[in-house]
Amino acid sequence: MIRARGLGRRFGAKRVLRDLDLEVPTGGFLLVTGANGSGKSTLLALIAGLLAPTEGEVDVELPRERIGYLAHEPLVYRELTALENLDLYGRLYHVPERRETIGALLERFGLWEARHQRVGSYSRGMQQRLALCRVLLHDPELLLLDEPYSGLDASAQTLVDDVLAESVGTRTLVVASHDPEHVGPLSTQALALA
Amino acid sequence: MTYFADVAALARKDILLELRSRDTLPAMLLFVVSALVVFHFSLPSDASATASTGLLWIALLFTALLGLGRAFSAEREQRVLDGLVLAPCDRSAIWLAKSLGVLAFLGVAEAVALPAYALFFGPVGWELVAAIVLADIGLAAVGTLLAAMAAASRARELLLPLLFLPLVIPVVVGGVGATVVEDPGRYLGFLALYDLIFAILSWASFEYVVAE
After folding, report:
1. Which domain holds residue B106?
2. What is the pLDDT of residues A68-119, one digit of tens each?
3. In this structure, what are the phi and psi dihedrals at residue A5, rounded to the nearest 5 degrees?
4. Which residues of A touch B21 (CB under 8 A)?
5. Distance of CA A123 to the CA centre of its chain
6. Inter-chain contact A80–B78, Cβ cutoff 8 Å?
7. Most A-contacting residue of B1, B13, B24, B79 (CB-CB within 10 A), to test interface
8. Full set of structural domains in chain A with CATH
9. Radius of gyration (Cα) for chain A, nearest Å?
10. pTM summary value
11. Interface pTM, i.e. ipTM
């Protein structure tokens, strides 16, 4: 499913990743840990195809419509409402029964009441929950989650736990976290970046 | 048809964003009218039609530049472009939708600018309107591509005019030419050819601009 050989990435003179080999099988769960600046986010962006490697290669045997990518930013428009943002992504991903799917996700992540509010007025935790809705909207086969618990309160963290638990075995997961206590027991592989 | 549905969804989003934020169109309108007022008072009363037409084109060019500078601001501030690039739609749909948005904003700005021009300088002929319509297509096509390139750069405010102005010199040549000669057909044809070539080039190269 995901194969990297000699993967490396530089930003100017700064080398963030070096000579990384990894293989994540379909249905596998890779937990990526490491301190800030160790290259966790860069690795996820390389797998997502948002960055090109400067050394080596990474292959993902999936078209990009089958990938769900949770970044540090929610990747939604602040001037649009949650509903409008998800509707846009739903159209671009050609989600079947778009409205029902969006409604169910907003309900599940506790954003239904705030669906007509502009995202700019959302708290960090609400934006993270909306980002999770965006990521799950098209039912991806590969989930790339960069610090999924960031900004979430205890109840929302439980929602992420549920998403991860139900995805184990049915989706391939790559989760980057510097706080692995939530996801550690579920993962099948671990990668510690220095 | 899916391609055009994607373009429609993205263009609708751009119009909605502008209606909500109102941070591009009002600035373009204010700028173009202000520029024409300044030109009106700085140009001698016996100045030729060629001079006033030239100044109109300068005003329109910089109005377009003002709009293009904001074209990808929403995507840049929230890194939303990453989300759009990951979506399975053809990446050129992002360019086409954004170009249509820029074209619409330019059209509104000119709907205000042309009556102001008529008031300050003289009548607006059909050849001027035709030249502006054709020029807008080229400005939006090239400008949107360059705005996307500049948005990825830290020196974006500097980069966009440096790339944009040299590339649109033919638009000014064609636009002014079409409005000062007796037979504007040759210049209008030149503008149409510019639109065709640069729209195809921009459409085909946008993928490489946004894919890092």
Report:
1. 2-210
2. 999 989 999 999 999 999 999 999 999 999 999 999 999 999 999 999 999 9
3. -130, 120
4. 79
5. 19
6. no
7. B13
8. 26-36+69-193 (3.40.50.300)
9. 16
10. 0.91
11. 0.90
